[in-house]
Structures are given as C-alpha cells and as structure tokens.
Design brief:
Elements lengths: L24 E2 L19 H11 L2 E8 L18 H6 L3 H14 L3 E4 L19 H5 L2 H20 L4 E4 L3 H4 E2 L5 E2 L1 H11 L6 H8 L4 E4 L18 E5 L2 E6 L12 H13 L4 E6 L25 H13 L3 E4 L5 E4 L6 E5 L21 E10 L4 E9 L6 E8 L2
Parallel strand pairs: 2-3, 3-4, 9-10, 10-11, 11-13
Antiparallel strand pairs: 1-16, 2-14, 5-6, 7-8, 8-9, 12-13, 14-15, 15-16
Helix pairs in contact: 3-5
Length: 409
C-alpha cells in the first residue's frame, strides 16, 4: 500500500495531515529555508522537536541517500532549459545536485549513498576502433564515460572532504549499453570499478573521518551465488558500520539486467543477522516496485524496475520482508515512499537532478512528484530508525521536510 500524503507546491508552508497511523508517520511539509536552501533556519517547531529527540535518544549513525543527477542532452526537463554550456558538456544537473549536496552537508550525515545514474553513460566503454585523430579518441564512448565520472567525482568531493563518506551504487546508465539494446556490458562494469573502486571501500578514509573502520566488508566477486558470469567485484557489496548492516546490489548485472542478486543477498543478510545485527539497509538503482504516479487510470506508468520480472521481484522482496530491511532506490526520477507488500519500506529517491519522470502540467497523484528530493536516516541509541525526506520544487523554491517515518524496532 502507498503511504500517501498531501503537500503544497510553490505556495506557503502547509502542515500535512491524514497520514496512516500504522506507518508511524509524523507531520511533514515544514519549510526549512526560504533563501534557496543553503541555510536551515526553521520556520516551525520541527527542528526543535528533532533536537529534543537527539537529547533524549542520541543518534549513533546517520546517512543520506539520493540518486540520478545526470542530465539528458536530448530529453532535458523543460525547467532546466536552456542548458548551460557546462551541463551540455558534462551532462549533470549541476544546480540541483550541488544544492542537494550543500543541504546534505548541513545535515552532517556520516554516509551518503548515491543510488546510481551519476553519469549519462549508456555507451560502450571500450577502446575506440578509430584512434586516427584526437577528435576520434576524445569523442569516443570510453573518454565520455571517464570524463563524466571525473566531473561527478569532482562535485561529490565536497562531501568527502567535509566529513561524509560517499558510497556509490551502480545504475543502468553506468553499466548498460543503449545502442546494444540496453544491456549491461563487461567493459562498462570495468569502467565502474576504475572510476568508483577507490570508494568501495577505503578503510583508511573511514579511519580518518570517523576514527573507526567498516567491518565485515565484502566487496569481492559475489556473482557466482546467482550464477552471474561477469565479475561483480565492487558492484554488489556489503559492510557493517556502527551496528548497522549496509548492502549495495547491482540491479543490472551482465546477462541478467533488471534483476537483483537475490541468492547472495539472502546469504549476506543471514550472515549479518548471525552477528547480532538488526538494522538492514539495502541500496539498488532500480526500484522493486514502480511508482505509478499517473493520475490518469487509462495511462498508468509501465513497470520500470525489478517488476519487469514479477516472480523474481517477489523473491527479492520476500528477502527484504524476511529480514525487515529497508530498500532505497532510484531510476524513476521521482520521490516516493511506500510499503508495497507487508511491512518493509521502499524509499524511492531518484530525484537528484535528472529530468523528472512526471512531465510538467500533467496530472499526477503526488504533490511532490516534481520535487528534487533526498532522504536522511538517523539510527538512534534505542534502536529507533527515523527516515526524513527533504526537497524543493522544480522552480527551486524553499526546502521542505516532505515526509517523516519511524521504523519499528
């Protein structure tokens, strides 16, 4: 079932109501800033209550998560036109993504999981067949991949250098080849490792940031458990940190696009539970359940994630339910939180700057379907887990707290 709520768009702040009690939601929609989102001068009692919670039940770990910041040179969102010369070349929505990062910086989480599609990619990251001129080499898919990765890494370094460790999640734009039929390629998986591998996982950087390292780190080739034929090193991986278990799954492995490594995930979560852990957070690019944001029943949103294979999706979600995990994803360029089946929560935050899936002036069911958004999670000493989504509309209005829930513990 969806956890729906109402919100104001491009208007003065409104306190949200009518939230399902069973979902343990608190009021949302509080305006946090009116100056473009760089300061967090609260306009109501939300942060006061949050600080009170911090005093009564201290936070032992916090992390933020978002995905999909890449720009599209062909199908840009109308509100981003005309694209700047910079964004035309480097293919980022630099205005939205940089504001999100500044906002996350102000919240000071220890970790930031980026749920894929940080680059336009979609090419074939192999040596070009024609290397006769500089223009041929520079214009190749290989060079485009590496320069797009480099630009994104340059933007993300502001988080890395101010106390937040960036944890990357592979997306379909990183690993798939569009001209070949949107299939993952070994060359693109190799390019992922070459450009993101130093973050997966740098124990020295963890030590320097937090005076402690992640434990039970598994970044090796976990593909054989699911009969995958390509090397999945640093594509699906897991680790423990401060009493919580984190898992990243590659949802587009070579030969098995739009599928998660369910057998490995099962074994991984079982092992984590045997160590006494109870907080399980899973991150993948493609959602398990596509959010149907269309208000027109005659034109529903077609399956876009793991639900293109419902049986495999249900097997994956059964593992999420079994271990009481929370699944964070992107791919759909939209924000939505739901409990699709049972009690487990899917947090969809593919709203980091890529062209919105919901076109402007087209009726949708959610008031925040065209909001740039991210989620910040606090794990408290009592074991309580609080998820708060923040965002701002497509006209870069004030930052708001969009939705808040507390997971059972």
């Amino acid at each position: 079932m969806d956890l729906k709520f109402s919100a104001a768009r491009r208007v003065a702040p409104t306190v949200f109501a009518c939230v399902l009690a069973a979902a343990m939601f608190l009021p949302a929609g509080h305006v946090l800033a009116r100056d473009g989102g760089d300061s967090y001068a609260d306009r109501d009692d939300w942060q006061v209550r949050d600080r009170d919670d911090d005093a009564r039940d201290p936070v032992v770990l916090s992390f933020s998560t978002v995905g999909d910041s890449r720009q599209d040179p062909v199908a840009s969102d109308p509100t981003t036109l005309p694209l700047s010369g910079q964004d035309k070349i480097w293919l980022q929505n630099t205005k939205a993504w940089s504001r999100i990062m500044r906002s996350i910086q102000s919240q000071a989480p220890e970790l930031m999981f980026f749920n894929g599609d940080m680059i336009m990619g979609y090419g074939k990251a192999s040596v070009p067949t024609d290397t006769s001129t500089v223009e041929k080499v520079v214009g190749s898919d290989l060079v485009k991949f590496y320069t797009q990765y480099a630009f994104w890494r340059g933007m993300a370094t502001q988080l890395l250098e101010t106390g937040t460790y960036v944890v990357p999640v592979p997306g379909n734009h990183e690993v798939q080849y569009k001209a070949g039929g949107k299939i993952a390629l070994v060359e693109n998986e190799n390019a992922w490792r070459a450009n993101m591998g130093d973050l997966i996982l740098d124990k020295t950087r963890f030590q320097n940031l937090f005076n402690e390292e992640p434990t039970n780190v598994n970044v090796g080739n976990n593909g054989p458990t699911d009969s995958l034929t390509s090397d999945q090193t640093q594509l699906s991986y897991s680790f423990d940190f401060r009493g919580s278990h984190f898992v990243v799954v590659n949802t587009d492995p070579v030969g098995h696009d739009a599928h998660a490594p369910t057998q490995w995930l099962t074994a991984d979560l079982k092992s984590a539970r045997s160590r006494g852990l109870t907080h399980f957070f899973v991150f993948g690019h493609k959602p398990a359940f596509t959010y149907n944001y269309s208000a027109d029943p005659k034109n529903p949103v077609p399956p876009a994630g793991l639900d293109t294979d419902v049986l495999a999706r249900n097997e994956f979600w059964g593992v999420i339910e079994q271990y009481g995990a929370t699944y964070f994803s992107g791919h759909e360029h939209i924000f939505h939180i739901s409990r699709p089946l049972g009690s487990a929560v899917q947090v969809l935050v593919g709203s980091g700057g890529s062209p919105f899936d919901a076109a402007p002036n087209v009726p949708t069911i959610g008031a925040t379907d065209r909001f740039y958004a991210w989620a910040t999670v606090k794990v408290r000493r009592s074991g309580r887990v609080q998820i708060t989504a923040y965002g701002f509309d497509d006209h870069f209005g004030p930052t708001q707290s969009l939705q808040n829930l507390v997971l059972p513990h």
